[in-house]
Amino acid sequence: MFDLSKLDFQPVYGEKVIQTVTDDQIADLEKHYGRSLPSKYKEILKKYNRLKPKLDEFDIGDETYLINYFYSLTDDKGSVSNIWWAIDNFSSFLGENTLPFAEDASNEIYFFKWVDDKTEVWLLRCDELEEPEDESVIESFDELLTLLHSSD
């Protein structure tokens, strides 16, 4: 099983402040979607909320992808780094059975998409496009985590 501490989470903006996420907050998110979240994603929310991974890059084929930060789960639903803000602002582009969970440095959105009871990882490319485009990135969140490496 993948050890999340290997991702070496760092502060997004200066000071390292971990805001605790409760089981009730995660349950509210799961209830909103009617789906269970990947267990490793729930662990990230609980242990590393509001932090970004130092191992932030992964390669698939000839393409390199970057995760700038995972959305936080806090009571400040108006914050642009909050998952509820992302849900409110991107759900119309993502479609049904999806949940935004992270952004890259170009404000492109990583999201979970439930397909045939599997939770796949997709990317919404919206930088400088008239109409955002989505693409399948990898078949599972766990697989994505194992591919992460440092962009330094």
Topology of this protein?
Blueprint: E1 9-11, H1 23-33, H2 39-48, E2 51-53, E3 57-60, E4 63-66, E5 69-70, H3 83-94, E6 98-103, E7 109-115, E8 118-125, E9 133-138, H4 141-147
Antiparallel strand pairs: 1-2, 3-4, 5-6, 6-7, 7-8, 8-9
Describe the structure.
Helices cover 26% and strands 28% of the residues. The protein is of the alpha+beta class and 152 residues long. The strands form three sheets. It has a five-stranded antiparallel sheet with strand order 5-6-7-8-9. Strands 1-2 form a two-stranded antiparallel ribbon. The radius of gyration is 14 Å and the shape is globular.
Descriptive keywords:
152 residues, alpha+beta, SMI1/KNR4-like, five-stranded antiparallel beta sheet, two-stranded antiparallel sheet, 4 helices, 26% helix, 28% strand
Query: What overall form do the CA principal axes indicate?
Result: globular
Radius of gyration: 14 Å
**What is the helix fraction of residues, given as a range?**
25-40%
Low-confidence stretches: none
Q: Order of strands in the sheet with the most strands?
A: 5-6-7-8-9
Given the helix and strand composition, which structural class is it? alpha+beta
CATH-derived architecture = 3-Layer(aba) Sandwich
At the fold tier of CATH, the topology name is SMI1/KNR4-like
- Beta content: 25-35%
Please give the alpha-carbon distance between the first and last residues: 25 Å
Tally of DSSP β-strands? 9
Following the backbone from N to C, one meets helices and strands in this order, namely EHHEEEEHEEEEH
Average of the residue pLDDT scores: 88
Largest sheet, strands/sense/barrel: 5 strands, antiparallel
